[in-house]
Structures are given as C-alpha cells and as structure tokens.
C-alpha cells in the first residue's frame, strides 16, 4: 500500500492530523488499533474536551479548523450541548457523548476522504537516510507495510518516533509521569443529586477513616454527561508505566478494584447515589503521560504561563496548567490574562527524522507546558498542524512555515 501521508493513532490529535493532511490535497491513511477513533475520549471515557476555549470572558475559542468540523458534526447529531463554563474556576469544557463521538469522528474522517484503518497496530518502521519509508502493521491476517512520503506520530505514546529511532523522553526529567486514572461511568443517580466536590471528598474521607485502604483520591472530579445523564467520576488513580503491559495489567486490575470500592462508598454516603450502578469503567485506564518526542524547540512552562507568542505558531494552547499527582487533587496554574499561548511548529517537528511530525500529548514540551498542552482541544490544534505540515511535505518535499500557516488559515485554524 502506498499513501502520501500515514497518521499513526486516531485520538483527537490523529483524527485532526489526518483530516488536515487530506484537506491539503494528499492521499492519507489513519491507522488506529482500537475499533473506533477518539483515543482517550472514547477508549478511556475522557468525555470532557478541554482547551477549545480559553478562560477569558467573554468566551474566547482558541482552536478551530478540524475541531469545528467535529463540533458541527456533533451538532447535526444533536449531541453538542455547547461549551460549559465552570462558574468557580472559569474553565470552559465541551461535554461529549461517547457513542455520538465515535459516530461523528467516523463521519469527519470519511467526509475528508481519509482512508480509515481500525483494528490495526503499527509495530515497526522501515527507515533509510533519516527518513521513514514505511510503517509495518499487524492485524489478524498478519504483517504488512504501508509506504508514504510523510508521517505523523499521534500515538499518544510516541510509538512511531521511538520505533524510528527518534529521541524521546519518558515523563519528566526524572522519569516521573502524571497519574493514570480509571474513569467510572455511573448510572441510577437522579438528576437533582448534588455532585459537590466536598460531598464526594467527605464520603471518601469517611470510608478511609473506617479502614478502607483501597481508595486513593479524595478530591476527584464528577460531572453529569449530556444525553445519558450518567455521572463521569475520576477518582481511581494509579501509578503506571503506560508502555509496559505488565504494569498496565496490575494498574487496570487495581483500579477496577478501586472503582467497586468507590461505588460502594458513594452508595453508602452520597445522597441520591443509593441505587447507583457502574455503567462502565474505562474501557482502558486513562494514561496521561508516557513519552515525549525531542523536537526542534521544547515548549516551556514559562511560554505557556506567560502566554508567549511565536513567529512559527501553528496552534494555540488555552487550558491552564493542570498537574495530577497520584491520589492528590489536581493543581492548576493560570495562563496570563486567562488567554492563550502559541505552539510553534518546531515543537512538532521531530529532530533527526526528516519526514516525521508529532501531535497531541507527545509534542516537545517541558512538564509544566505538557500539563496544559496535553488536553484534547489543544491536541486537535497540534494534530491539525502536524497533518498540514506532513501533507505539504508529501506534496512539495518541504514544509515551509509560511505555507503551513497559510494552509492552516485556509482550513479555518485559529492561529
Ligand atoms: C484520566 C484522564 C483524564 C483526562 N481528562 C481530560 C479532560 O477532562 N479533558 C481533556 O481535554 N483532556 C483530558 N485528558 C488528556 C487527554 O485525554 C489526552 O492528553 C489526549 O487524549 C491526547 O490526545 P492524543 O490524540 O495525543 O492521544 P490519545 O487520545 O491517547 O490517542 C492516541 C491513539 O493512538 C492509538 N495508538 C497508539 N499506539 C498505536 C499503535 N502503535 N498503532 C495503532 N494505534 C496506536 C491509541 O489506540 C489511541 O487511540 C485526560 C487524560 C486522562 C488519562
């Protein structure tokens, strides 16, 4: 098989990359190992999109382009409740319905003319003269190769970059990663039940005091989802090496045990939760962080917090820095003026591999910048940019920053 652009990973970054590349006029394939696109949104029930809007008043949307196509498609499906501003923090999220998200992403990918390839694992690469020639894939029929002129690593774990011998860093400078969390979807809770953060914390505290040693986080997050009215609860934290199946196995099982304990605690101590039941966990534990690629510029926490502008901007980050330590409440730090910072193309362009761009939570940034840029809204933005850069490279053998910016603007990106 031969394409102009291969995108590995079909999360928010990969979907945006593939559509961005296809919209710039090149033949593009999007490879995803799961049976649906969406990445953490659909496979780990991370159903609140952060980073499409900054905290500023009045409402300021900072990521457009492919993200807008996604929101428009959700709207046509009757599944876009609009942005929701948390009155306390000022954070603006877009809540998602999981099934509508899967279906909307299918439609976006197909409408753009991207070739979708689900149930397909990328396991190796063919590389020569510092350029990737092909990816090796595996499905139940066996191994096969897909050649292309340009590639995007949107795998969330930096698989493609690592397989190609590109430089990667695991976690922060000391190899520490943000906590992983198994998301719980809970049904059977009446619409008027309070989801007060303090009430959850008190309930967990009570259970811990009574001797429950399984529970980790007291101050987690709970929101009500559109459509189903289910409660999305993020409490069950684990420390995991998200690259290692042995570590993941231990974490999945331990987190599932936690989820059943949390359910029990909520039923016993939270008014309205008496008949609550687990609709679903995961399906997969949500891994926030593994590898980061080495690009041509490491986006810094100072860049993010000071709202720094870059000449070679290709995306905007508008979510505050949000750090998750295992079992601890999330720590937030505001971006200057509650606005946004620029993400430069240099942070996506993988050092040492001529025809590879990165996108989403693996782009080159320090731990503080990562704590903001990792979110799904921003991943739509960096994905779109990486796809356009790869598309232009495939078409004309170089991705000049002015051409990338012009094409992104033509495709409706906000830069
Ligand atoms: C518990 C938790 C809560 C979070 N809360 C929020 C939140 O409320 N709002 C928010 O916006 N963000 C949140 N985030 C962050 C956000 O979900 C991720 O940072 C974001 O999804 C990154 O997008 P991505 O496309 O880079 O990666 P992912 O969404 O992880 O997608 C990567 C995709 O690549 C595929 N893949 C990987 N390797 C291969 C391979 N070798 N072959 C084929 N396919 C492959 C994977 O199956 C996956 O679908 C949260 C994350 C976690 C874990």
UniProtKB/TrEMBL annotation:
<keyword id="KW-0411">Iron-sulfur</keyword>
<dbReference type="InterPro" id="IPR039650">
    <property type="entry name" value="HdrA-like"/>
</dbReference>
<keyword id="KW-0408">Iron</keyword>
<dbReference type="InterPro" id="IPR036188">
    <property type="entry name" value="FAD/NAD-bd_sf"/>
</dbReference>
<keyword id="KW-0004">4Fe-4S</keyword>
<keyword id="KW-0560">Oxidoreductase</keyword>
<protein>
    <submittedName>
        <fullName>FAD-dependent oxidoreductase</fullName>
    </submittedName>
</protein>
<dbReference type="Pfam" id="PF12831">
    <property type="entry name" value="FAD_oxidored"/>
</dbReference>
<keyword id="KW-0479">Metal-binding</keyword>
């Amino acid at each position: 098989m031969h394409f102009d652009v291969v995108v590995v990973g079909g999360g928010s970054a990969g979907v945006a990359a593939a559509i961005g590349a296809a919209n710039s006029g090149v033949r593009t394939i999007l490879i995803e190992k799961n049976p649906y696109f969406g990445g953490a949104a659909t496979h780990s029930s991370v159903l609140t999109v952060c980073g499409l809007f900054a905290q500023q008043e009045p409402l300021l949307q900072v990521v457009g382009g492919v993200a807008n196509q996604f929101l428009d498609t959700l709207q046509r499906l009757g599944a876009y409740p609009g942005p929701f501003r948390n009155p306390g923090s000022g954070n603006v999220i877009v809540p998602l319905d999981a099934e509508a998200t899967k279906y909307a992403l299918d439609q976006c990918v197909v409408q753009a003319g991207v070739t979708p390839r689900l149930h397909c694992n990328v396991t190796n690469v063919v590389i020569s003269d510092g350029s990737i020639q092909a990816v090796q894939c595996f499905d139940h029929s066996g191994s096969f190769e897909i050649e292309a002129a340009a590639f995007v690593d949107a795998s969330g774990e930096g698989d493609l970059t690592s397989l190609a011998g590109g430089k990667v860093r695991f976690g922060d400078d000391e190899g520490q990663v943000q906590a992983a969390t198994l998301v719980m979807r809970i049904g059977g809770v009446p619409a008027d039940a309070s989801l007060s953060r303090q009430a959850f914390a008190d309930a967990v505290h009570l259970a811990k005091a009574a001797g429950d040693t399984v529970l980790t986080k007291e101050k987690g997050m709970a929101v009500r989802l559109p459509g189903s009215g289910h409660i999305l609860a993020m409490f069950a934290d684990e420390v995991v090496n998200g690259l290692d199946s042995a570590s993941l196995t231990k974490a999945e099982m331990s987190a599932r045990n936690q989820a059943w304990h949390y359910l029990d605690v909520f039923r016993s101590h939270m008014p309205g939760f008496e008949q609550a039941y687990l609709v679903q966990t995961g399906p997969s534990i949500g891994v926030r962080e593994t590898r980061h690629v080495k690009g041509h510029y490491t986006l810094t926490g100072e860049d993010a917090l000071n709202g720094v502008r870059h000449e070679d901007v290709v995306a905007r980050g508008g979510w505050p820095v949000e750090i998750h330590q295992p079992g601890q409440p999330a720590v937030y730090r505001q971006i200057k003026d509650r606005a946004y910072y620029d993400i430069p193309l240099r942070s996506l362009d993988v050092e040492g591999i001529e025809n590879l761009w990165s996108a989403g939570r693996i782009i080159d940034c320090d731990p503080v910048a990562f704590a903001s840029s990792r979110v799904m809204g921003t991943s739509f933005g960096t994905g779109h940019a990486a796809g356009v850069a790869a598309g232009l490279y495939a078409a004309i053998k170089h991705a000049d920053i002015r051409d990338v910016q012009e094409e992104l603007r033509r495709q409706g990106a906000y830069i």
